Amino acid sequence: MTQTSAPLPGCCEDFARATALTRRGVLRGLGVAGAAWTVGSAVVQSSPVAAAEAGSGTGSVVVLSLRGAADGMSLVVPHGDPVYAAARPRIAVPASAVLASDGFFGLHPELAPLLPLWQAGSVAAVHATGLPAPNRSHFAAMEEVEDANPGSTERVGWLNRLVGDLPGDGPLQGISVGTESTAMFGPAARMSFSALDDAVVAGDDQWDPTDDRLRSLHRMWGRSGHPLAGSLRSAVDAVADLAPAKAVAPGDYPTTDLGTALSSVARTLKGDVGARVITVDQGDWDMHTDLGTLSWGNMNTNARRLAKALAAFFTDLGDVASRVTVVVLSEFGRRVVENDNYGLDHGWGNVMLLLGAGVRGGRYYGTWPGLENTYDADLTVTTDYRSVLAEVVATRTSASVATVFPGFTPETVGAMTSL
Fold it and tell me: PANTHER family from the entry (predicted)?
């Protein structure tokens, strides 16, 4: 869910421009009905899908995008490369402060809430990942990453291709929380909402205090033999007596956009409504200035919020966590050398995080290229980000990797187990 706060001071102009469905019956009704529904401000168009298919499948994938180009070398610190500290004399995370060190890499100390998951083998990092060639424009890079089909003139995202290759065709298989990710754009049915508690049947609002809209829909479809009737009746009945869903205590999630979004995602997944792919955004990672040190700065704040929200999310999921995999990525990384403003300018290579089901965790993956201490030096990409995503698709879904990533031959990363 995109941050609603003002852009960070010093962020580039390019970046600056840029519900609960508290009862599972409502979502199931949406998923099986071939009709248009209003969910918050979104209109969902769907085609019929058998009710038995709702909730089918073995796993769900949550894709969390760190908007603004997060500095992967601050989140997962290559302290074993001597150039790292030399190139960042003020903002480098010292080797003595990192967590889960393997002698070369370590986690930023503000990622401490994720340490129990790391130690349990449920979190892994893949470093020096990214696009095959540098693209330093935020929105051009976002679109390239999310289309994942270089050279194509079609505006179809890789997640839309993934959803379209899954069994069934209900819109609840693909969900965007907040602004719809371009990775979801395309012909396959999907839906989006900004707040789970805003899910409504169109017309059932303050202007209808006696619930005439719901009674009308129930009367219209109550005795119909149309194949959509049962689904619509179920949805109307569920909306009529919506009740707050029980979730993790509010204090367990940080009071941030990301905390709110992941709370909604957890409620959706626990509702078992057939959601297979969900996207969430966290903004404000464009740290040209005031990335800071371990004593102050925006990296500390963002890393802490990210870790707390993810830790609360997996606690909230409970037993459902055994079928949920989270992928964390950003459009590109930052330069090796710090600038004069305690920040970093646009770079290339980055880190990806994998959490949850099927992850061979507690380890760092990828081929480290070595760093150079020159003004315009980048972290060179040695693993195409699609290879990481392809491994998730192959091991956690039934979709074809060749369909999701046309013309791409992935390399073996080794960070995921089979279903």
Answer: BLL7424 PROTEIN, DUF1501 DOMAIN-CONTAINING PROTEIN
